[in-house]
Amino acid sequence: MLQKIVKFSFIFLCINLLNAYELKGYGATFAGDKVVELSNLYKLKTKNKISYFPIGSSGGIKQVLLNKADFAIVDIAFKDDSLEFIPFIKSPISISYNLPNISNLVLTPNLISKIFIGKIKFWNDKEIALLNPNLNLPNEKIIFFHRYDGSGTTFTISSFLKNNSDFWNLENSEFINFKLGIGKRGNKDLALFIKQTPYSIGYTSYYYTQNLNSAYLQYKGTISHPKDDNYPLQNYSYFIYKKNSSKKENIEKFIKFTKQNYNPKDDKLSYFD
């Protein structure tokens, strides 16, 4: 009897393994750690393997169009009739900074633009001080960290500044030649370097801002923080995959699984339709 049970269990296991599948995805870094975590959970519960590589939205799009990936997660707005676009999660973009003993800095789109293009070089610049009269701003040079990879976060913030600042003189794109500052790959690394570098500033997904200060944004008569519902600087991400993909059913099973097994509010994120 025991031999029959062992034999049946072995056959059942083999059938499950034969029916298991693997999907490969690339794309956005702003919640890359969470997608990897969900992929591991999916394998644990279903025996199906999901490999996700957070290389940036631009790279993810290229991998899908070249048929080198089954899906991508992207936060760059574009159209392609050959692709399905499924809403995933949105994340506030934080203007993160490292100023000792200062946690309530307020900035405007014009001030952010001037810092990012080098017109404002020191923290105690009169324009920053005028907006923050109660802060003891240091006479220290601003160190600017930005993305050098193809980034949906870069695309979103540059589009926001182009539409809301009189001083933004760069393009709005996933790739920007900032001509100053220090380039880093991915939201996670950029946030890490801001955390390690006093007097620095940069832009990153709010998901990665643990133990980092996020500037308040004065915009259209209101002042808001990335944690607030009315904060205007938001990144929207989508699952994309080929409409004619032979793996479409399995991709959609994984997408459904992510939404059933993850509450994005736990990580300062949210779903959207």
Automatic annotation (TrEMBL):
Annotated PBP domain residues: 42-258
Listed CDD domains: PBP2_PstS
Family label: Belongs to the PstS family.
Listed name of the protein: Phosphate-binding protein PstS
Protein's organism: Campylobacter ureolyticus
Protein encoded by which gene: pstS_1
